[in-house]
Amino acid sequence: MEQSPSFKTSELKNKTYTTMPESASTVALNTAPEDDAEPALDPELLDQELQLVSSLAKLQKLEEMIHQLRTLLPERLLEPLALIINLKAATAVSVPNSPQALYQRLSQSASDGVREVETFKSLWRGREMKAVWERVDTLIYENAGQLLQSNGMWQEDYDKILEEIAKHDAARKEKQQRAKEEEERSQLQSAEGGWRALVEEYSQTGFPGMRVLPPRRDSSFVVLLPKVGLSFKVNAIGTGQEDVPEFNVTSKSSSAEPASKVESTVLGCLNARPRKWDLNYLFGMILSYSNLFQTTCAKCGKMQDQAANLPTLRRLNPTTPQPEQLPTFEAYHATCV
């Protein structure tokens, strides 16, 4: 994906937040909505606490998987032979009616067992668990080989605690995002000239592959993508929240010319975007189509899917754009999402 060019007007940038309400040992007991006045929390400390709870949840999962693996041999792996070895064995599986059927059952049982072992190994050797094992080794060294022994029982279900933390954290992030958007709307409303001044500046700024025409008297403006032969009319609709309009995109083509399948798909994606009031977001998204016929899918890496469709869907690139840059987007086929 090409880097988007810069412009002079200060951009409303996307930011990510990491928040956690309280310690992991108490969050599961306090899931009711909190008052608006919440203490300021150190994001780095909260991230460490979330990592800790996640690691404990994985340790519990590993222990559960170990107990399950202990039943793999010989019980579950050789279960297809149970009725053949012992006709009185209590099992819900019927006796195979042929050697081929028995072979298929044994093969499936072996494949399932191998998959189960590989899943365990993948979790055990994962990046997060590697940090846990390094921490354990450090504690063993610092305590001369002596570690506090547990009673063999987990006092908490850390998977449930992690789920509660994630729910609460998501609610906090949504609340922060709403407040951030309200602030950005207010800044756009108070800016001299409003959205029209921003469009005027875009029209004077060079964007490779995209041309913006000055706004018209009917509260609309035109955006051209000459390289791909697409042109859009952007209409400011209503006043919206905080007296900031939302923007709808239509084809600038003559009404006598039906929109192509590609153009219709692009328009649908543009009008399904969030932040419909955010012109920076809209221009960044339109710019992502300037190389439509050379762009590959971010998931499959191909330009066309099996039905010869182009990757016309767009998702915001998680990388925060640099100051004075438009947000960037990743391309996807509809069949890849």
UniProtKB/TrEMBL annotation:
Coiled coil: 158-192
A Pfam family annotated for this UniProt entry: Med27
InterPro entries, per database record: Mediator_Med27
GO cellular component terms, A-Z: mediator complex
Keyword Transcription: yes
Region (Disordered): 1-38
Subcellular location: Nucleus
Bias type Polar residues, positions: 1-29
Major localisation: nucleus
Superkingdom to which the source organism belongs: Eukaryota
Key words, A-Z: Coiled coil, Nucleus, Transcription, Transcription regulation
The family this protein is said to belong to: Belongs to the Mediator complex subunit 27 family.
Protein name: Uncharacterized protein
Organism: Aspergillus mulundensis
